[in-house]
Structures are given as C-alpha cells and as structure tokens.
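Our consortium's second objective concerns turning raw sequence data into structural hypotheses that experimental partners can test. To show how far this objective has progressed, the report includes one record in full. It was chosen at random from the queue rather than selected for favorable results. The single chain below, 181 residues long, was entered without modification.
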Amino acid sequence: MKTEIIISGFGGQGVLSMGKILAYSGLMDNKEVTWMPAYGPEQRGGTANVTVIVSDERISSPILSRYDVAIVLNQPSLDKFEERVKPGGILIYDGYGIAQPPTRTDIHIYEVDAMDKAAAMNSPKVFNMIVLGALLHVCPVVSTDGLERALYKSLPERHHHLIPLNMEAVEEGKRIVKVKR
C-alpha cells in the first residue's frame, strides 16, 4: 500500500518537522519513504509544505500533483491543496487557521482543534504532534510504536525528555479529531 501525503501551513507551525517525523516513522516500520520539503526564504511566517510518501513497495518518484491525504494548517494551504486531494481521499485541517472551511463532497474531511489543545496542554510546541495524532487516527499509515522510535531517532538527545509529552499530544490528537464530512 502507498499513501501520498502533503502537509502545508505557515513556517513555524512544525510542518517540516511533522513530515520528517512521519518519514522516520515509516522507516522504523520498515516502509519505503520519501520526504520532500518546500519552503520560502522566510522560514517563520512564510508558507511551507512537505510531501511524504509511505509505501510497502519501492517509490518511483517523490514528485506529486495529487494526494491521498492533505493536512492543511492555514487558509492559503487549504485554498491551494483542497482541489489536489484525490476523490475519496482525506483532508485534515486545524480550525484555528481556517476562515472558509473545505467544501468538497467527494473526500473525507476531518477537523482537529490542535491549536486550542496545545494551548490547553500549556505547550504550543506540541501543536504539530497533535495534528500528527489526528492523521494516525484517520489514516494509520505508520504505527504509534514506529512514531515513538522515530522521535528518539530524529530529535536531538537533549530533547528526548520531551518525547513522553509529544506522545501524549499524539494521543490527544487521536482523541479530538472530528469527522466533518
């Protein structure tokens, strides 16, 4: 099985980190993966997106124009990528950054109030892990165990003490994601 994912939002929301952790998780689960980031020179505040492909078989190209899953964290990302989700695909969005919700009726749409939950957890930095948890609930492309092992592999050792909080955020994301359509 192959899952083609785009994650998009503003720089500083952890978009690229989320893609990197997802790719490492695939590796920990012995899957084939690609990780291809795209961002402007602004780094924080500019737009950023990352394409991740997780597959049981070899991946022929990391270049995609249509996606099985889109995770959009702001209105410009929704405007750009909603139409690029394959019919029957999945779109996940954080309601905080969206003024005009998705309108397509041929895809599965989920909302996760990750920004609000991160604030309630007194840890804004776990925002992206909450969103990642929502993804794993609706599309378990990698295992939770693989994700935890990926955190140990991808985070600097000085941040390993934060991994339990990150895993708690993943579980919260799984719990709070809501079906919109």
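The partners drew two points from this record. The longest helix spans residues 15-28. The chain has six helices and seven strands. Both points have been shared with the crystallography group to help prioritize constructs.
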